[in-house]
Specification:
Layout (H helix, E strand, L loop, with lengths): L20 H10 L26 H12 L6 H9 L3 H26 L5 H9 L2 H36 L11 H18 L5 H28 L2 H13 L3 H11 L10 H6 L16 H32 L15 H44 L13 H19 L3 H29 L3 H24 L2 H23 L6 E6 L1 H11 L5 E5 L6 H15 L8 E7 L7 E10 L2 E8 L2 H16 L4 E4 L6 H11 L4 H12 L8 E4 L1
Parallel strand pairs: 1-4, 2-3, 2-6, 3-5, 6-7
Antiparallel strand pairs: 4-5
Helix pairs in contact: 2-8, 2-12, 2-13, 3-4, 3-12, 4-10, 4-12, 4-15, 5-6, 5-15, 6-7, 6-13, 6-14, 6-15, 6-17, 7-13, 7-14, 8-12, 8-13, 15-16, 15-17, 20-22
Organism: Streptomyces cynarae
Keywords: Membrane, Transmembrane, Transmembrane helix
Protein name: APC family permease
Length: 663
């Protein structure tokens, strides 16, 4: 095994003093679970353990529901601000896009990505080499926008429910910002302590919250039906503002992009797929039962949410004065809570507020778990993040710092953050629609490709419209994208000289050649260009190397040849194949880079034979800087000195370090 090892917190590097006990304990606490966990954070979106049987799909739906259904806390108010009296009509457009756009797309994503990787992984497979890596990093920037704004917006809306409650102390008046920060800090504290899977809590929260919303909507419907004049007032006001039904439809189509955050739960719906129990006959390669039940999950959640969105939009538009939705108004960010207090009394309204605060806070927990699963899945695998990003607690501190900055930037204003939230949601949905289009097109399903292509176009229009009208979202996303790109590539360069091999194994032929050569002493290996050579070329190479680098006469040599597969990959499992051809004995291996692969093979040969091997190279003509760039981008360059540097960092003891000879 030659993968990167995480040293014990008590270990000290040669020449450095041992860290203090307090420092070591702090580091051990921060990096707890680092060596075992990779994208397996035990939160609502955790990848379940192999021994875990999973949960029924309707229970897993509640994990999505804490994010998806919680938008009822603020979506009706945002819709009223965006569309005014036409809010129900614009909501109908949103529902149509949900049921006939987003839902089919994510049902396809569930089929294409049944292990919770989502649309980002689908697109990663479509684009090769560095283009795919950079594209994924950009999507991660938008995903970070989506999840982080989920945390801050949900906490801000929870704070609005606290402040506007009639039983809240007077000293809380105007305290939205500090209450939001307190909720964000509490969320961070829970994750720092260790947040375990909470399906039961999610089910209880979602069931309670939906039941209370049904009560509020039913009572509101009774009030409206008992006073039909309210419906007449609403329709009269609409016709007074707009000249014709066609004009109303046109306005609804134009403003519905502002309501796009009402589709926020689909990406998380796919992320929770590993929690779905599926069928006993499911296998990793063919989890048909999990896919079927996840599709049930997505469809049921979409239908429930669509009904609640339409009914809540009708109730709030007809029963709440338009001025109450404005910033600072009693219904701003809490339209249904306003109706609960207005028509069911302060006691019921307070219960509703508590339920809303709880599910909004848990939506932040759901988003945090999503981030903690997403970042370790990609960045460390690309070599674009330090190893500590595989641990939960350091990442929690980073995300909490970002959430605090976002909260202060927007002053905990729900309306101001909605544009950024919608941008993140729409980009992820657009990427899913595009990936689905390509997937069905490659399978020859022309009708499905046309349908998904149409959805992609609609989502693209929605995204562009949202960005033009509310550019804050793209600004925040660009900040995250630039930060991720800069830090990722800086980390990649910093880690370029790591060993970068997960495992090294030898096939039967390679093992035989190695054992035979090792019988006469330490292994002697000639690094060679990885193409098919003639017998004469191999003989000439061996002769020149023996002369220039003083390989002992009479000792057998092995030729080591590395084929670069994808230089944008950071780590790889290496399998060394052996053969005898053209009169020489060869060890051939495929890896992401030449020098790191050679170094990893040399280290494994040392461990296998118990003797330090010797490797022989030729100098490569060219400028050092150009060779360095070739190594970073293409995985080759000046191989000898880079191999030596990789070995120096991997093995601090010079006596045990494989020898590098250059002629």
């Amino acid at each position: 095994m030659t993968g990167t090892q995480v040293e014990s917190p008590d270990a000290a590097e040669p020449g450095h003093s041992r860290p203090s006990t307090a420092t070591a304990r702090c580091r051990a606490w921060l990096l707890e679970g680092l060596s075992e966990r990779a994208a397996r954070h035990p939160g609502p979106h955790a990848t379940r353990d192999d021994g875990h049987e999973g949960h029924a799909w309707w229970r897993v739906m509640c994990l999505t529901g804490v994010d998806y259904f919680s938008t009822l806390g603020y979506q009706p108010g945002i819709a009223a601000l965006a569309a005014g009296l036409l809010s129900p009509l614009a909501t109908l457009v949103l529902i149509a896009l949900t049921l006939f756009g987003a839902l089919p797309v994510y049902r396809r994503v569930a089929h294409e990505s049944p292990h919770g990787e989502g649309s980002i992984a689908m697109l990663e497979r479509l684009l090769p080499w560095w283009a795919g890596k950079v594209f994924v990093l950009v999507l991660l920037g938008f995903a970070a926008t989506d999840f982080l704004i989920t945390i801050t917006l949900s906490a801000a809306d929870a704070a609005a429910h606290v402040v506007e409650n009639p039983f809240a102390p007077h000293w809380m008046d105007g305290g939205n910002t500090w209450i939001t920060l307190l909720l964000v800090a509490a969320l961070g504290a829970v994750f720092l302590k260790g947040f375990k899977e909470a399906v039961g809590i999610a089910v209880a929260l979602v069931a309670t919250y939906l039941a209370l919303n049904v009560v509020v909507i039913a009572v509101s419907a009774w009030v409206v039906l008992s006073h039909p004049v309210r419906i007449g007032d609403w329709t009269h006001a609409m016709t007074a503002e707009h000249s014709s039904p066609l004009a109303m439809i046109a306005v609804a189509l134009l403003v519905f992009p502002k309501l796009a955050l009402g589709m926020s739960g689909f990406e998380t719906g796919v992320a929770v797929m590993p929690q779905v129990k599926g069928d006993p006959m499911d296998t990793y390669a063919d989890p048909a039962g999990r896919v079927r039940d996840t599709r049930k999950l997505l469809t049921t959640a979409a239908v429930i949410m669509s009904c609640l969105l339409l009914l809540s939009s009708l109730a709030t538009t007809i029963l709440i004065p338009q001025d109450a939705f404005k910033s600072g108004g009693p219904a701003n960010g809490r339209a249904l809570a306003y109706l609960a207090h207005e028509h069911l009394g302060g006691a019921f309204g307070t219960v509703y507020d508590i339920s809303t605060i709880a599910i909004l806070w848990f939506a932040g927990a759901s988003a945090m778990a999503g981030l903690l699963n997403l970042v370790p899945r990609y960045l460390p695998r690309y070599g674009m993040a330090p190893e500590w990003t595989r641990a939960v607690r350091p990442l929690v501190l980073v995300f909490m710092a970002a959430a605090v900055l976002i909260t202060l930037w927007f002053h905990a204003d729900v309306d101001a953050q909605s544009g950024a939230y919608a941008t993140g949601v729409l980009v992820l949905m657009l990427s899913a629609a595009f990936a689905s289009t390509v997937a069905v097109h490659r399978r020859g399903h022309r009708a499905a490709a046309l349908g998904f292509g149409t959805i992609t176009a609609v989502l693209a229009y929605t995204l562009v419209t949202n960005v033009i009208e509310r550019p804050d979202g793209i600004k925040i996303a660009l900040i995250f994208i630039v930060a991720i790109l800069v830090t990722s590539f800086a980390s990649r360069v910093h880690r370029a000289f790591e060993l970068r091999a997960a495992t090294v194994t030898f096939d039967e032929a390679a093992a035989r050649l190695i054992d035979e050569a090792a019988a006469s002493g330490p292994l002697l290996l000639i690094a060679n260009e990885p193409q098919e050579h003639t017998t004469g070329e191999y003989r000439a190479k061996e002769s020149s190397q023996r002369e220039q680098t003083h390989i002992p006469d009479g000792r057998p040599v092995l030729f080591l040849e590395v084929f670069v597969t994808d230089s944008s990959d950071f780590t790889a499992d290496l399998t060394v194949h052996g053969d005898e051809k053209h009169g020489v004995r060869r060890l051939r291996v495929r890896g992401a880079t030449v020098p790191n692969t050679i170094a990893a093979v040399l280290m494994e040969l040392r461990d296998r034979t118990g003797r330090v091997p010797h490797a022989y190279f030729n100098w490569t003509e060219g400028a050092p800087l150009s060779h360095l760039l070739r190594f970073l981008v293409f995985g080759d360059g000046e191989v000898a000195p880079v191999t030596r540097e990789v070995l120096r960092r991997a093995e601090p003891d010079p006596e045990r370090r494989p020898r590098i000879h250059v002629g």
